[in-house]
Amino acid sequence: MSSIRRIEVEKTISREQLQMAARNHGMPLEALAYPITPLGLHYLLIHYDIPVVDAAAWRLVVDGEVERPLELSLDELRARPSVEIAATMECAGNGRVGLSPHVDSQPWLHEAVGTGAWRGVRLRELLDAAGVGVGAVEVLFTGLDRGLEDEVEQSYQRSLSLEDARRDEVLLAFELNGVPLAPQHGFPLRLLVPGWYGMTSVKWLAHVTVLAHPFEGFQMAKRYRLQQDEEDEGMPLTRMAPRALAVPPGIPDFHSRERFLEPGPIVLRGRAWSGFARIASVEVSVDGGETWRAAELEHDVDSEWAWSAWTVDWEAPLGRHELCFRARDEAGNEQPPEGEWNVGGYGNNAVQRIVVNVS
Ligand SMILES: Nc1nc2c(c(=O)[nH]1)N[C@H]1C(S)=C(S)[C@@H](COP(=O)(O)O)O[C@H]1N2
Ligand SMILES: [Mo]
Fold it and tell me: Which CATH architecture has domain 15-236?
């Protein structure tokens, strides 16, 4: 079957990309079987080093354009009313390796995703306690981690408009799946912005600053934008575009990871999500995208911010087949057949393709 396509990794992986890939693991796609990603299987993306934080000495400062600046210990935060939200999080660079020409950054195929049960206090409640000033327009979040990017030394910082920051589902989270955050996920506290690509959810949070002007820092102005070239200002990445992924069927070859299964009936399954709206449909093709069938959808996680499960029956015939999966959300966003190249290699939600050998 000459029509079978795989993601071609054009360049031999560089030392820099190997370093990033070894630090920032993905979620093995077989873990799509779980509604809530088990601890340790959620993907990781860490720009610099994981800070070692002394929880007893740590404080969260809320200040800037507020009437009553706050300084809270972890115990004080945990004593406030909290909520748990199951939310799917995906890195904006997920799918990057599928873009051509190759983009030199964390080399994600499809595995930069996971769903956590996050517990924390609503950011809005802390903002109200601090009393947001009349001139406020944005909220800035600063992590404890520091490093250099493009020769700019910085703390990891991202901002949100005041309106987005005040949304109901935005949390300052101190627990993941019922236990305190692990160091790699932002201990002792992280921002959680359900529906948005992961870069928004600042880890190792130390400082929440209410601003009277838009924040123009590196991670806002220079990264996480869809740019055609370095000069292009581009649009900022915000919410996750829809994507369906399958639990890879059958068994893998150790080296190529190509899939092998026996002929006969099989249930193909996976999950799909969108940060814009609920998933409306998932379609599956077993002939490389020539013909499509609707999968059965189940919203099996009790949260509008979490992925949905899908299944489809297949009578697998002998041969080599290319399976394709695509999702559409209730806002009408759907996955394109090919991703659109951009400088940072962000937002490539092209249809997933898996080659299976039925023998
Ligand atoms: N302080 C800080 N927060 C951060 C990052 C970081 O490097 N430093 N990485 C961001 C990115 S790009 C992603 S995709 C998510 C990943 O969160 P996770 O590692 O808990 O899955 O965290 C975000 N928050
Ligand atoms: Mo990311």
Answer: Alpha-Beta Complex (3.90)
